[in-house]
Automatic annotation (TrEMBL):
<comment type="function">
    <text>Catalyzes the ATP-dependent transfer of a sulfur to tRNA to produce 4-thiouridine in position 8 of tRNAs, which functions as a near-UV photosensor. Also catalyzes the transfer of sulfur to the sulfur carrier protein ThiS, forming ThiS-thiocarboxylate. This is a step in the synthesis of thiazole, in the thiamine biosynthesis pathway. The sulfur is donated as persulfide by IscS.</text>
</comment>
<feature type="binding site">
    <location>
        <position position="297"/>
    </location>
    <ligand>
        <name>ATP</name>
    </ligand>
</feature>
<dbReference type="InterPro" id="IPR014729">
    <property type="entry name" value="Rossmann-like_a/b/a_fold"/>
</dbReference>
<dbReference type="InterPro" id="IPR003720">
    <property type="entry name" value="tRNA_STrfase"/>
</dbReference>
<feature type="domain" description="THUMP">
    <location>
        <begin position="59"/>
        <end position="166"/>
    </location>
</feature>
<feature type="binding site">
    <location>
        <position position="288"/>
    </location>
    <ligand>
        <name>ATP</name>
    </ligand>
</feature>
<keyword id="KW-0547">Nucleotide-binding</keyword>
<keyword id="KW-0820">tRNA-binding</keyword>
<feature type="binding site">
    <location>
        <begin position="184"/>
        <end position="185"/>
    </location>
    <ligand>
        <name>ATP</name>
    </ligand>
</feature>
<keyword id="KW-0067">ATP-binding</keyword>
<dbReference type="InterPro" id="IPR004114">
    <property type="entry name" value="THUMP_dom"/>
</dbReference>
<dbReference type="InterPro" id="IPR049962">
    <property type="entry name" value="THUMP_ThiI"/>
</dbReference>
<feature type="binding site">
    <location>
        <begin position="209"/>
        <end position="210"/>
    </location>
    <ligand>
        <name>ATP</name>
    </ligand>
</feature>
<dbReference type="GO" id="GO:0140741">
    <property type="term" value="F:tRNA-uracil-4 sulfurtransferase activity"/>
</dbReference>
<dbReference type="InterPro" id="IPR054173">
    <property type="entry name" value="ThiI_fer"/>
</dbReference>
<dbReference type="Pfam" id="PF22025">
    <property type="entry name" value="ThiI_fer"/>
</dbReference>
<dbReference type="Pfam" id="PF02568">
    <property type="entry name" value="ThiI"/>
</dbReference>
Length: 390
């Protein structure tokens, strides 16, 4: 039966959390690969093994593994049973020879890890003997630093595994280790990256989007649905709340001075998101704010917005600039959707000269003239829930 070996990060595993961490990752791999027949995911000492049936395409298995947080690296692995009575490494050498890549490589190295100390050779002995054999049959030199090909050998409980093509995983902590948060997803470049970063730290993320209907088209909603669907690949199930915000904005425009409107919109969003988070049993709110990016994200305005929710606002991108965020959105695959043109509700009724230094006192005074409670209730009542599963 073919298999993959999956490695996780030891540092995250200190103390009593180790077992829990591994179990979460194993469960996530099982859920992620459940559509394929005959999948078996086992925790071995220091790594996880994913066994699958002959004929299941490696690309499908790989797709599930590389979307699992906690995975630091993984590879397609070949296995041989260990015969403790016979220390001959020839069968291993021959098996590796049969799998050597057909494409050219100029240099190689062998890297052995021996988790099973009953194995009669040390790691160094295995490296030397297998390396010498491969050198003899291929004529290629061993190069320890940056070789073209690394052959990984892992000796674990009764079995020797080897693999030729180790890939990087996403790292982070397995989904669900860090509870649930609610992310305000705008359809722009930043907030999907913020959501991804929290997922990577082990959070399950529920999404909330405020759209400008009936005054704007469905474009922002469609984008946000695509983004939520894309990110669901990492957590397998997501909930997205779509909140009509156009009417709320119109009322704010009618009853408040233009320069502070953006902050008033943001505070309304926070009130509604805070309620949703409570119902979702989330412990925090997430935004894609980056310090100083636009008027709503100056030091002063961030503070005034932060006064509103009961829950903490998490801003994983606060210290990043737009180039860094854009690069990350390209890496995680949300960029192309994020830059599709749309009409975000924030573009609706935007004042030409927003106040970049709003003061709490002035904002609270302006809010006295607004029917805050009714607006929150209307937002919650008209919320539409969309579910995604993967
Ligand atoms: P993004 O920050 O996602 O690229 P943006 O830059 O257009 O979009 P900003 O004006 O920077 O949005 O808004 C800051 C943050 O406020 C967003 O990252 C998002 O978390 C939240 N936000 C803004 N508009 C909305 C919206 N319409 N629905 C949900 N959240 C929003
Ligand atoms: Mg932004």
């Amino acid at each position: 039966m073919p298999c993959a070996l999956v490695h996780y990060h030891e540092l995250a595993l200190k103390g009593g959390n180790r077992k829990f961490f591994i179990q979460r990752m194993v469960q996530h791999l099982r859920n992620s690969l459940r559509h394929h027949n005959g999948i078996q995911v086992d925790s071995l000492p220091g790594r996880v093994k994913v066994s699958f049936q002959d004929g299941t395409p490696w690309t499908a298995i790989e797709d599930g593994i590389r979307h699992t947080f906690g995975v630091v690296n993984y590879s397609l692995a070949y296995s041989l049973p260990i015969d403790y009575g016979n220390p001959d490494l020839q069968p291993l050498c021959k098996a590796i020879e049969a799998q050597l890549p057909t494409q050219s490589f100029h240099t190689f190295r062998v890297t052995t890890k021996r988790a099973d100390k009953r194995f009669p050779h040390t790691s160094v002995e295995v490296n030397r003997e297998v390396g010498a054999y491969l050198h003899e049959i291929t004529g290629k030199p061993v190069q320890l630093h940056k070789p073209d090909l690394t052959i990984f050998i892992e000796i674990v409980d009764h079995t020797t595994y080897f693999s030729l093509n180790r890939q990087q995983g996403p790292g982070g902590l397995p989904t669900g280790m860090s509870g649930k948060v609610v992310c305000l997803l705008s359809g722009g470049i930043d907030s999907p990256v913020a959501a991804y970063r929290m997922m990577k730290r082990g959070c399950k993320v529920t999404f909330v989007h405020f759209h400008g209907r009936p005054y704007l088209s469905r474009a922002s909603e469609e984008k946000v649905r695509d983004l939520a669907k894309h990110l669901t690949r990492y957590q397998l199930y997501s909930r997205l709340f779509l909140i009509p915000f156009g009417e709320i904005q119109r009322q704010i425009v009618l009853d408040s001075p233009a320069p502070i409107r953006v902050v008033l919109y943001r505070r309304m969003m926070m009130r509604i998101a805070d309620h949703i988070a409570e119902k979702e049993q989330a412990w925090g709110l997430v935004t894609g704010d980056s310090l100083g990016q636009v008027a709503s994200q100056t030091a002063e305005n961030i503070q005034v917005v932060s006064e509103i929710p009961k829950l903490p606002i998490l801003r994983p991108l606060i210290g990043m600039d737009k180039i860094e965020i854009t690069n990350e959105s390209q890496q995680i695959g949300t960029f192309d959707t994020s830059i599709e043109p749309d009409q975000d509700c924030c573009t609706l009724f935007v004042p030409p000269h927003p106040n970049t230094k709003c003061r709490s006192h002035d904002i609270c005074k302006a809010e006295e003239g607004l029917a805050i409670q009714e607006m929150v209730e209307a937002g919650l009542k008209n919320a539409e829930l969309v579910e995604f599963s993967c």
